[in-house]
Amino acid sequence: KVTGGGTSVFSELENSNIPSIMIPGLHRNSSSLDELFNAAYSHQASPEKVSISYNAIKETGWQNFIVADISSNSVDILIEDSKIKGAIDACLGAMGIVHGPIDLEMIRDIDEGKRTANECFSHAGAIKIAGIDGKVANMKDQLLENYRNGDEKAKLAIDTLIMTVAMEIAGLDVVCENEIEGIVLTGSIGSATEPFNFEDEINKYFKNKYELKVISKESGAIGAAQIAYDVYNGEDNILGINVNLS
After folding, report:
1. DSSP 3-state assignment of 1?
2. Cβ neighbourhood burial of 149 (10 Å; 0-12, 13-18, 19+)
3. Is the pLDDT of residue 1 over 60?
4. Residues 6+ away with beta carbon under 8 Å from 230
5. Which of 60, 46, 98 is nearest to 216 (CA)?
6. CA nearest 188: which of 80, 28, 73?
7. Given Cys at both, which of 5, 78, 153, 156 links 85, Cβ 3.0 to 4.6 Å?
8. Domains in the chain, CATH or no CATH each
């Protein structure tokens, strides 16, 4: 069993006297989501993605857009009429640096007992193309360093990641009933300007079709604070999610 940072923070707040609210993740029982997304996927995004989306609305003022959070994993979120309509989780579509979709080869490895599902998921991102293994933070740094040094496998890995993100964003655009106002890019890779400029690279696929807006890679923390502030001041709905203070 691995205890993540979120669990540790929750325990700290639970044992403190600080008034707190819990931001939900997006899953099949989320009544705020579009019924088709709920029918298709058991899980769509973590609570952090709700916070990121809220910060994105604050930063842009847009009502219909897609948030692309690209870092160790990639999650893309569709906002329609200022509500989260749905999202594509990290294990389904676009690659991140470390995590990515579980493909047929990995399914066979899981069935044959060669690797666990989590081991496959944690090696399904760009690192599998670059041939890198190790701790999450170290793998990202190693991939970027290899890219800087002109390593061909590292370049192929990053280029492939960007292509899969572009594909996922284009798919979400198709199912949005309103016209998309733009794309918000965030995360340590989505906001990157070196050793490559992510905004410029992904725009090669979009060909200036969308307005692109890069927000802070800390947008999850910023958005969570903005949610807390607005709920404290009486907001009763966050991106289509009803606030329950009882």
Report:
1. coil
2. exposed
3. no
4. 238
5. 60
6. 73
7. 78
8. 32-97+151-242 (3.30.420.40)
